[in-house]
Write a structure and sequence with these properties.
Elements lengths: L3 H33 L17 H8 L1 H32 L6 H9 L6 H12 L6 H8 L7 H4 L1 H26 L3 H9 L4 H12 L1 H15 L4 H6 L11 H11 L3 H31 L1
Helix pairs in contact: 1-14, 2-14, 3-8, 3-11, 5-8, 8-11, 11-14, 13-14
Length: about 290
């Protein structure tokens, strides 16, 4: 049983790590807040001083902010739709006793271990390039004109790339949940004459509800910060067609050299991400409590 002396000693030993973590989190946040209220533009170093709410008014009033917000919601929603439906299908497929099951599972899961910039480069040059990409060869073989994906469908192309990366994660979580389903329960439903569609609807899907909730929760948190895929492929364009909030902060703060406005955009993005996270936690958290 721990005494008061040992408890004090353990707290003292943990204190340096806790202090470092607090500094690690608080210092960047405080600096971002400070710069968001300052006139700080690298192209105009003579203009300095307190800016008040001007940077926030500029960022929120810019039409590109609304478009970036809509693009962020479409990006997150599109990737979630593809990964949840595709992950469920692949989990059902991989749960079947087929030849080469182990190798097939490794192949399906492998895209998750590819770094985002590398994945974006592979899709940009290997699949979607209008001149020598595999899709352009396929289109020509079918007698069709190749599509310039990143100019004609920039946001949809990024959704496909990000979904390709996150599909293995959803498949892995959903497959684990599927394998925990009682075999006796499935056999009893089959003996009662339940069709495959009804077994999926009334037995498998309710059993996977918690796993689907976890997939949506974790993926949403990470998808709100998608950056590398946009930077490597479209650069946020054409115009602002594929710019999300994260990339808008980068464009404003780094590419436009307006550190004050970029910091204000970062603070707004953090606030919006936290609002989404709170609603998401309250909405899907009920499912986890049941």
């Amino acid at each position: 049983m721990a005494t008061a002396q040992t408890r004090t000693l353990s707290r003292l030993m943990m204190a340096p790590a806790v202090i470092v973590l607090l500094i690690w989190m608080i210092v960047p946040l405080v600096m971002t807040l400070w710069f968001s209220f300052q006139n700080y533009n690298l192209l105009n170093p003579m203009m300095t001083g307190f800016a008040g709410w001007a940077n926030y008014v500029y960022v929120i009033g810019d039409p590109s902010f609304t478009q970036a917000l809509v693009n962020t919601l479409l990006l997150v929603g599109g990737v979630l739709l593809i990964t949840v439906i595709g992950g469920t299908f692949l989990a059902l497929l991989l749960d079947q006793p087929i030849w080469g099951q182990g190798i097939l599972r490794i192949i399906v899961i492998s895209p998750f271990f590819v770094m985002p910039p590398v994945a974006a480069l592979v899709w940009k040059n290997g699949f979607m390039h209008p001149g020598y990409g595999m899709l352009s060869h396929l289109w020509r073989a079918l007698g069709l004109q190749p599509i310039d994906w990143f100019n004609q469908f920039p946001l949809q192309s990024i959704i496909v790339i990000v979904a390709w990366q996150w599909l293995p994660f959803a498949t892995l979580i959903l497959l684990t949940a599927l394998q925990s389903l009682s075999e006796e329960q499935r056999e009893a439903a089959e003996m009662d004459g339940a069709k495959a569609v009804n077994r999926f609807r009334y037995i498998i899907l309710p059993h996977m509800a918690r796993a689907i909730t976890i997939v949506i929760l974790i993926q949403t948190i990470f998808l709100l910060g998608i950056f590398a895929e946009i930077r490597v492929t479209t650069g946020g364009g054409p115009g602002y067609a594929s710019t999300n909030l994260t990339f808008l902060v980068f464009r404003t703060g780094i590419l436009s050299n307006d550190i004050g406005a970029g910091s204000a955009g970062g603070v707004v993005a953090v606030i919006l991400a936290n609002i989404v996270a709170i609603f998401l936690m309250r909405a899907v958290g009920k499912n986890l409590d049941e």
